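Below: protein 1.
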Amino acid sequence: MSLVSLTIHRPKYFTFKPGDYIFINIPQVASYEYHPFTITSAPEELEHIRVHIQAVGNWTRKVYERFKNISENNTSGAAFHVYRADQRAAVNVNNEITTISINIPIKGEDQGGRVNDNLSFSSKTGEMAQQPREKIILNGPYSTCSRYIFNCNHALLIGGGIGITPYASILSSLMAQFRETRMTCNHCRTVTYAENNLWDNQRLKKVDFIWVTPDSKSFEWFLDLLCQFEKDQAEYLESNTNKNRFLNIQLYFTGIKDNRSVDQVLRHQVTNIWADEMGSDIFTGLKSPTSFGRPDWDKLLRDMTLGDNSSTAKDINVFFCGPKTMGKKIQHHCVDFGIRYYEEKF
């Protein structure tokens, strides 16, 4: 699977909510085509916005191939510049095996010391290089049902495959707000959190995140986000022993069936030994274990109303983005349990 990670300088008055999306037009690919993509960065990231584009259709494949060819043919080692239509903002294309990451670099200067968006420093030649321009037109942002997540006590976020992208912005925003309450002692470097922390000041008290995917290939960027959230949450719980876990993560790999064959038994043994020794999952590097096969939605939703979830059971909201067939099954079980269901189309 091929993926383009596109980071663009954020326009001055561009405001959005977690889960919002924008339409993108790249005239050099198709002059009059606009395509919607979820913003995967958080509103708290003031300098840039980010989208992830999976090469699955004609236009997205052309976008991937265009940037891939540009980066492969860029023998000078200088950055390739992409410009937003309303304000020129330089970004750098960095080629990887399956993912093309486009990041914001430092602008170059011309001989007069003036900032020039057309110039960048070449690490290979040690000289300033003239670069081509790439124009990108943004239209939006537009809201989705995902923004209702903050209006409930308990949110169950379910993503199927690339359907996890709407939740990247939400989790990033939660993590940014979470970090705002963190305080570090200048003398002993002890980390504490404000008494009136994020969870005390908002309605949302608990988030369960479930990701169902054949594998995690090309989603390393999202696993990094989950890993960082786990670390921040662990640090928070260490300094607040009376607090409950805010985010629970469950991953399901459907590319590997869960049965009682010899291979499966050995796989479980190896993964369990690895988790005991290393303290993380062998497939993802997360503290949360990976399950094989598909979730038992009836059992999973039933458990959501029991145990530690009983305090928020009356206000559980399910948010889903993924394949239609999966969504229909989940919606059916939500009706049985009287749980409010939201689905985002993609």
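Below: protein 2.
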Amino acid sequence: MLNFLKMALGPRPTLDRRSSSSSALSNGSGLDIRVGKPPHARPLNISRSALKACPVLRARLGQGSTIMNADPVVFEIILDYLDSSGFLEMVRPNSQNPLEYLIGGSDMMLKLAKAWHIADMLDLMHLQNKLVDTYRILYLKLLNSRIRMPLDREPFTYLRNHMGTHTKLEKFLIDIYAGLARYDGNFSVEELDDLPNDIAQSLKQRRAQLVVQGNFDDRIAIGDACFKVSKSDETRRTSLHVTPPPPLRSTSNGSLRPQSGYTVSTVCSMHSPPLSPPTTPISSTSMGYIGGHRVRLSLSGITSISGQPDVLVSPSALPAVWSTFGTAMRPARTRSTSTTTLLQSRAPFMDRAALASARQLDTDADGDSSDDETSQRSGRKYQSALDIQEQ
């Protein structure tokens, strides 16, 4: 008797079907999944025999999938039952029923409700009926010992939240609690307050019937089939909530691909500091030629290497130069003294056509360079034009 009470009301040993990468992946059998809502999900391995016994598992699950709406402890026990069913059950008919691991502890009726729900999602009606048979044996032992089971509202709440009202398991639970309470007084008000009103009324009425009629009306004791499910019941209301495994992310540099259209140079330019005005005077040596046309500027107190009073500046640098020198900057310079003097001394001997040609030569030479060598070359070109005119 003491051993039975320890078995019925004490904690049961737990199983360990946690997935092992060394065993599951080496032989290539079964599926490694996770059961439960994160972060409390547990890794489990589904063997090939369990997959063969349940078509729903084969159709819905893949390697690394997660079942969100199932209790991992109860699901593990059901997997053991699927492993032992079939050929193994015929070979060893007296072997221990894995569903007996649900029995034990104060939450064994809640585990019955969870197991019934999982069997419904897996479309395993024979498992639902096996659960009824397993708990019927427990009921008969407690009834013979006249042990009353404490009333618990959690299994009723779980069934209604996941499977609806007035299920066959709900009626089975009512008969269990009412049948075991027939020898120990009526239910207290405190016990019934937490339950839905219709369930509380059913418990009181069912207990009153069993007190009067005894075992003749005890449907669990006589093995009534009213608690068994069949295909004609159409009681399946739920399905597995399965999430696929997260995508694999490679950590090698070679597999990294750009996620946007930006290149490294673009990103560097986006984060480079803005152009600030120069702190030193700008001259022709500090500004390299990048491309395109340059603008000739005359800056106060600034001369080029050749001594000219102006420098060449690229258009992109004009804002920085303007912010530094301000009004002291002039966009153009006065023509060189040597060229101006040459034009004035030679002008009386030239006609208008020769003078225009000379001025054009001077303008071209003036735009190409700003040093003394360019001015002398322009003077020689101008002298050649005058010699032609005199001839």
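The chain has three domains: 2-243, 277-334, 337-390.
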